[in-house]
Design goal:
By secondary structure, the chain is mostly beta strands. The chain contains 2 helices and 29 strands. A hairpin with a 7-residue loop joins strand 8 and strand 9. It starts with a strand and ends with a strand.
Length: 479
């Protein structure tokens, strides 16, 4: 019964940007012959909390007119891309649903592009090459064709982006990587190169400064050792030459007074005719007596090393694959619940005991996808999947475990990570491995079982930039 009421409003068109609001005056006339109540709402917005009406419900007598103040808002991020929208101002009776009227309200959402760039790690130490992982996010309301570039102050570094260009819809993110190359110094100290990585799409751009530390090809310590060794060799050669000259001078007179022939040596071996006599075993020459014995000292056995648990997967092991969601679909970049993989027997959380100041409350975990690293599990802040990825990840087992293997990735290959196992008797044990190894294994000692494991980089510095990237976890149940 649209004829039972009349609806008009001013202004009759809105133009808003992300995060902006506007007020309308909605005039309602009860054209019926009975007293009615009318409520006002807006249809076509992504959420109901993006509009408000004051008063929420208005009572009007027959032919009476009232005014409602209506506020319409556009969200800061997500939900409404730039462009034209047709909203509806809906006025209806809460008691008689057939008494209603909807008038069209045109809305123009202004473009507000936004681009965010994240880089891990911020400092790379290597030789000729270095690798950085980029995370690009479209935080605006327009699609972006993003190009990547890099520069250095000395113009000595080459940049290889994979890929060099990406296309991002509003509210989406993706990963990329860049390999930097420069000739390292031959000797001396490390070369510290200040780089800038840049992402731009038209007038929109984002930059991040990073550092590339290059080790010299010949380490300073090795060069000093080589110099000292050369000096020692020269001195040893001079001493040996002098000793030989002294010995030769003492043996010459003895040869001149020796008899023409010598009796056979013990054992029946005759001396060489006309040769010099062998030195007497009871009277060695002074030069030979002064020389130390060249025979090596008895070998000393090194202390035994503790054997590491086998990396081979035991029969009956359960696999938790963090490169896929539990339903098998790609994870993308998202914060996840710690119970997402509960069906696999694990509960996930972030360990913030040694977290930097800005990540003390970052107890979330996330699945991320970044360039050649693929998809992995990491620690996360509540603000986004790419925040606070350097904290360790804790895995609690719903039932005690016996054997645990964590497969992981990272950069550079020499970065060390530690797996800390919490045993059922309250004690802890640690196992370390590098990115080059790719996995770390722990097996509970006899009579114990594993209640939880915590995995993160070994660097004790809270501001360290080594990120946590767990590809999968395998474990066997305790017997």
């Amino acid at each position: 019964m649209a004829g039972a009421l009349k609806v008009t409003f001013t202004p009759d068109r809105l133009t808003l940007g992300p995060g902006e609001s506007a007020d309308l005056e909605v005039t309602i006339q009860n054209a019926s012959r009975v007293v009615e109540h009318f409520g006002t709402s807006v249809v076509g917005l992504p959420r109901d909390d993006l509009f408000s009406a004051e008063p929420a419900v208005m009572k009007l007598r027959p032919m009476e007119t009232g005014v409602v103040r209506l506020r319409v808002s556009v969200p800061d991020h997500g939900g409404m891309v730039a462009g034209a929208y047709a909203l509806g101002v809906l006025v209806r009776s809460p008691y008689q649903r057939e008494v209603s009227r909807c008038e069209e309200l045109p809305l123009d959402v202004r473009p507000a592009p936004g681009l965010a760039l994240g880089v891990q790690p911020e400092i790379v130490t290597g030789g000729k090459n270095g690798l950085y992982v980029l995370n690009l996010a479209n935080e605006g309301n327009t699609p972006l064709a993003v190009a990547l570039a890099g520069r250095d102050q000395e113009n000595r570094v080459g940049f290889e982006f994979r890929p060099r260009e990406v296309y991002l819809e509003p509210g989406t993110s993706t990963g990329a990587e860049v390999v930097v190359r420069a000739d390292p110094p031959l000797t001396g100290q490390e070369a510290r190169r200040a780089l800038t990585l840049r992402a731009h799409a038209g007038d929109v751009e984002a930059e991040r400064p990073v550092t590339f530390l290059q080790r010299p090809r010949i380490a300073g310590g090795l060069l000093r050792v080589a110099t000292v060794a050369a000096g020692v060799a020269v001195l040893a050669g001079a001493a040996l030459g002098g000793a030989l000259l002294i010995r030769s001078g003492k043996e010459t007179p003895a040869a001149q007074v020796a008899p023409l022939s010598q009796p056979a040596a013990p054992g029946g071996a005759p001396s060489a005719p006309g040769g010099s006599p062998p030195p007497s075993p009871s009277a060695p020459s002074s030069s030979s007596a002064a020389q130390p014995s060249s025979s090596p000292p008895p070998s000393q056995s090194s202390p035994p090393q503790s054997s590491a648990a086998s990396t081979a997967t035991p029969s009956g092991a359960r696999l938790v694959d963090f490169s896929r969601l539990p339903d098998g679909s790609p994870p993308g970049n998202r914060i996840i619940s710690g119970d997402l993989y509960a069906a696999k027997g694990v509960k996930l959380s972030a360990d913030t005991q040694n977290a930097p100041t800005g990540c003390k409350d970052a107890t979330a975990v996330a699945l991320r996808t970044a360039g050649s690293f693929g998809s992995f599990l990491t620690s996360s802040g509540q603000a986004g999947a790419d925040v606070c990825n350097t904290d360790p990840v804790r895995v609690d087992f719903t039932a005690p475990a016996h054997w645990v293997r964590v497969s992981f990735t990272g950069s550079p290959a020499t970065t060390s990570y530690t797996l800390t196992a919490q045993l059922d008797d309250g004690s802890t044990q640690q196992v370390a491995a590098t990115v080059q190894a790719g996995n770390v294994v722990f097996e509970a000692p006899a009579g114990t079982s594993v209640a939880s494991v915590t995995f993160g980089h070994t660097n004790p510095d809270p501001t360290a930039k080594e990120f946590t990237a767990i590809k999968s976890l395998s474990y066997t149940a305790a017997q």
